[in-house]
Fold MBL fold metallo-hydrolase.
Amino acid sequence: MERISAGPHHTGYKIGDLTVTSLRDGYVDMPVRRLRQPGDKPFGDDLPSQVPLFDGALRLSVNAFAIDDGEEITLIDTGSSNAWHPTMGFLPQALSEARIAVDRIRTVAFTHTHLDHIHGLILADGRAGFPQLSRLLVPRAELDMFRSVARLGRFHDQSEPLDPGQRPSANIEAVAASGHEIGHTCFRVTSGGETLLVWGDLVHVPSLQFERPDITWEFDADQERARATRLRILALAADNAWCIAGAHLDSPGVGRISRTETGFRFEPL
């Protein structure tokens, strides 16, 4: 992968014949207690020193990813719009900065249905974020969860189930990665002999969870499964020399994984 553009809210890459753009929706500060040690024990004063804090809180970037095949654009996740913290909701600015016309986004696919991934379907003023949207893919196990979100009611009938192995486009394949949520899904993007894995919320705190993949997150729906899935996907990416793209890795959230003696290491691209 080669970086081809960058700005405060976006970074563009070339992968084979595709353009992949990391879009920064913003960030959210979370309390340290959200991290969980084995045995579901929260961190306190024992938080490792390499983890940066901002006024005592963990800062998580919030990233979405656009995949452009030259004809249409598939958007993976949409950020939070104005549904959560005011430090988020900058996806429209990121798209404009990257010179991505929203009318070219015909497919939106979700890694899962937590609010910081789905509410960008609607702009803060209530208008549709993607006027030409023709496919809205939601992991099958979370379809009812999505259809229970009242604010997104206009999209309930449009949403379609997404299954592992399904291809939203010729270059994108859905990969099962449950644990953080019941239907949590990664997307394997391939072109020109290169692979990028867009992995959603596999890692929340990169300064800790690569070295200690056994550490989980309070909002992981199934702590044990989330831990096992993280270990499996990290090994898969490292052993196959795939690039990865994470929703909560420090923006732009794209890089490579390598093994260490005790865990893994993330190297930004």
The chain has one domain: 2-268.
